[in-house]
Design goal:
Elements (H helix, E strand, L loop, with lengths): L2 H4 L1 E5 L2 E10 L2 E10 H14 L3 H28 L7 H8 L1
Antiparallel strand pairs: 1-2, 2-3
Length: 97
């Protein structure tokens, strides 16, 4: 089945549950996201406006968050290793010539 057809949204108490499918080496994992009805409505409107699926939106948002965290860790490591030495643009241009 296509991911869009297998994407199921249903209510359970005060929560909406989305089953999102992700692809990893031709395998698919199912993940469940619980959120309020208001948040679920906002997500539905957003993906409709963007012309994407809830599954694709969730996948890209989660992976982006992980990448942002890795970037932040690299930045912190670079700041910690910084020896304070700075170069002017002229110094850099001279070095490149």
């Amino acid at each position: 089945m296509e991911a869009e057809k297998t994407l199921a949204a249903f209510s359970r108490g005060e929560y909406n549950v989305f089953k999102a499918l992700t692809r990893r080496k031709n395998r698919m994992a199912t993940m469940t996201v619980r959120m309020s009805d208001e948040d679920a409505a906002l997500v539905r409107k957003y993906v409709g406006f963007e012309g994407t699926t809830i599954s694709e939106f969730a996948r890209s948002a989660m992976l982006e968050k992980i990448e942002d965290h890795a970037d932040l860790q690299q930045l912190r490591a670079a700041i910690e290793a910084d020896d304070g030495q700075r170069f002017s643009i002229n110094d850099v241009l001279e070095e490149l010539d």
